Amino acid sequence: MPSIVSVRGVRKSYDTGFEALKGVDLEIEDGEILALLGPNGAGKTTLISTICGISQQTEGTITVGGHDTLKDFRAARSLIGLVPQEIALEPFERVENAVRLTRGLFGKRRDDAVIEKILRQLSLWDKRDSKINELSGGMKRRVLIAKALSHEPRVLFLDEPTAGVDVELRQDMWNVVRQLRADGVTIILTTHYIEEAEAIADRVGVISAGRILLVEDKDALMRRMGQKVLRIELDSPLGAVPEALADYDLQIEDEGRTLLYTYHTAAPRSGIGRLITGLTQAGVALADVSTAQSSLEDIFVDLVKENAA
């Protein structure tokens, strides 16, 4: 799939000597949802701001739809919609007028049909004549998205789109994002909510200390780096792991009534069959067996720790 955004060798440093981006390379595919994960201060917002032209890179090149963001700024920026984390809206402006005004700022001719489509898509049509200060926090965030879509961009950046939003509204927002992708919009979101990336992203990028650690298909990443935990409930408590099973590095929990066995999903053999056989031969009676997949959060934490070491 072709790249709609290409970031090559991008560095961003300040007069103080601090380097926020350290040679970032990133290819964003047309029509995908890319979740960019990273701890506070990792460089997520700096990277988005640089791609969107809010700040300029010190080194490297960025193109959007083939347009260089420095040499052909207007053409590149016209392809981008940006939804900032902060809700900064004119409180007494009406919803439809606010969205129409943003479209005009990009030099687009008035098109009431486009505005109506966007407002309906975001469940804002019934609120079109409402003043911004009359809306809930979730609706205000929808207005931000509507304004970002008003000039019909091909790429939409969402910086912490569900920050401060309750669980129900967060899931509602995920549905909006999926619908936008279905309509052909490429979406890049930064998030602190690991479950957000797990729920809606096609690919996951991890950034830490100004460097991209990886960008990979979400499911492939979890298969490659994920772990599973086999939880074995016992009929009777164990005081210690049988010597014959010492190589399995089993953990005892619940006062000896539970054994935990961790294995990598990418390994050619899990060893579960031999483990169960070994337990039976050792006279350990099993009451129940279950498995749990490691989450994207586990993988993310391990990657950041590994990079910091």
UniProtKB/TrEMBL annotation:
ABC transporter domain location: 5-234
Signal peptide coordinates: none
An example Gene Ontology molecular-function term: ATP binding
Keyword line: ATP-binding, Nucleotide-binding, Transport
Protein name: ABC-2 type transport system ATP-binding protein
Organism expressing this protein natively: Poseidonocella sedimentorum
